[in-house]
Write a structure and sequence with these properties.
Helices cover 46% and strands 16% of the residues. With 261 residues, it is an alpha/beta fold. Strands 1-2-3-5-7-10 form a six-stranded mixed sheet, with helices on both faces. Strands 4-6-8-9 form a four-stranded mixed sheet. Helix 1 packs parallel to helix 2, helix 4 packs across helix 5 and helix 8 runs antiparallel to helix 9. The longest helix has 18 residues. Bound molecules: ligand LHQ. Ligand LHQ binds next to helix 2 and strand 6. The site of ligand LHQ has 24 residues, from helix 2 and strand 6.
Length: 261
C-alpha cells in the first residue's frame, strides 16, 4: 500500500488524506493509483457511509506533479491520456459515490487539486485556503471537471475570469460566490469537517446517495425530466428502512437511528 494516500476508518466514516506534503500533495502516478484504489474501496464497502477528503501538511492539493509531466524531458506527454487514465475516473468515482464525499480544504487547492475538491458533495475550507485555477499559467485548460463545475457553480462570467486570469480565490470569497459551502477558522476546520462528515456517515445513506444523483442530473435535465426523476428516486427512498425509521422517530419525538439501508 502506497503512503501517498492515507486511509483511516472511524466507524462508518472513511478519511482519505492526500499525502505528499513536500509537493503540496501534487499527484504523481503512484498517488493516482492509490487514490483510485481508496475511492473504489470506499465505494464498495457498505460499512463505509461517508468519505472525508483532506490534505496532509499546509496544502490540500497542487494538482498534477509537473515534474512528472515535464515536456522538456523528451517527448511531450499526452495529457489527454493522463486525464482519461487518471483524473476522469477520480471525478466519476467521487460524483457517483453512493454516499456523501466531503472535502476539508486545509490549504492551497490548485489546478486539478481544486477541481477534485469541487467534485465533492460538500466543501469546507480553512479561511487561509485558496482556490487557484492554475492551468492558464502553464498554457492548459481547466480539467478534472473544472470547466463543468466552475461554470455551473459560479456562472460563465466568473468561471471564465477564474480560468483565464488564474488568480487565487480566497476561501471566503469562494463561499460568498457559492463555489464552496463554507470557510471556517483554520484551527476549527478539521473538527468541524469531522463532525459534519460523522453526522452524514450516520445519516440515511441511500437517501443521501439518491439526493446527490438528483442534483447531479439537474445540471443537464429540463424540469419535466427532473420531475420524472424525482418521482423515480423518491419511490426508492420511500422504500428504505431509513424512511420508515425517520417517520417513526419523528412521531415518537426522538432522534432517528439510521442504518443506511
Ligand atoms: C509542486 C507542485 C506541482 C510539482 C507545488 N508539481 N511540485 C492534468 C493533466 C496532465 C498534466 C498537467 O496537469 C493536469 C492538471 C493540473 O493539475 S495542471 C496544474 C498543475 N498545478 C499547478 O500548476 C500549480 C503549481 N503550484 C503552484 O502554483 C504553487 O505551488 C501554489 C500556488 C499551489 C502554492 O504556492 P506556495 O504556497 O508558494 O508553495 P510553493 O510553490 O513553494 O510549493 C511548495 C513545494 O511544492 C515546492 O517545492 P520545493 O522543493 O521548492 O519546496 C513546489 O515546487 C512544490 N509544488 N506544486 N504541481
Amino acid at each position: 500500500m502506497s503512503d501517498t494516500i492515507l486511509v483511516t476508518t472511524d466507524g462508518p466514516l472513511r478519511m482519505v488524506t492526500l499525502n505528499r506534503p513536500d509537493k503540496l500533495n501534487a499527484f504523481n502516478e503512484e498517488m493516482h493509483r492509490a487514490f483510485r484504489a481508496a475511492l473504489e474501496a470506499a465505494r464498495d464497502d457498505d460499512d463505509c457511509r461517508a468519505v472525508l477528503l483532506t490534505g496532509a501538511g499546509r496544502g490540500f492539493c497542487a494538482g498534477q506533479d509537473l515534474g512528472d509531466r515535464d515536456p522538456a524531458k523528451g517527448e511531450a506527454p499526452d495529457l489527454g491520456e493522463t486525464l482519461r487514465h487518471f483524473y476522469n475516473p477520480h471525478i466519476r468515482l467521487i460524483r457517483e459515490m453512493p454516499k456523501p464525499v466531503i472535502a476539508a480544504v486545509n490549504g492551497a487547492a490548485a489546478g486539478a487539486g481544486a477541481n477534485i475538491a469541487l467534485a465533492c458533495d460538500i466543501v469546507l475550507a480553512a479561511r487561509s485556503a485558496k482556490f487557484l485555477q492554475a492551468f492558464a499559467r502553464i498554457g492548459l485548460i481547466p480539467d478534472a471537471g473544472g470547466s463543468w463545475s466552475l461554470t455551473r457553480l459560479v456562472g460563465p462570467a466568473r468561471a471564465r475570469a477564474l480560468a483565464m486570469l488564474a488568480e487565487p480565490l480566497p476561501a471566503e470569497t469562494a463561499a460568498e460566490w457559492g463555489l464552496i459551502w463554507k470557510a471556517v477558522d483554520d484551527d476549527l476546520l478539521m473538527a468541524e469537517a469531522r463532525d459534519m462528515a460523522g453526522r452524514l456517515a450516520n445519516g440515511p445513506t441511500t437517501g443521501l446517495a439518491l439526493t446527490k444523483q438528483a442534483i447531479l442530473a439537474a445540471a443537464t435535465n429540463d424540469l419535466e425530466a427532473q420531475l420524472d426523476l424525482e418521482a423515480e428516486l423518491q419511490a426508492r427512498a420511500g422504500a428504505t428502512d431509513d424512511y420508515r425509521e425517520g417517520v417513526t422517530a419523528f412521531l415518537e419525538k426522538r432522534p432517528p437511528r439510521f442504518t443506511g439501508l
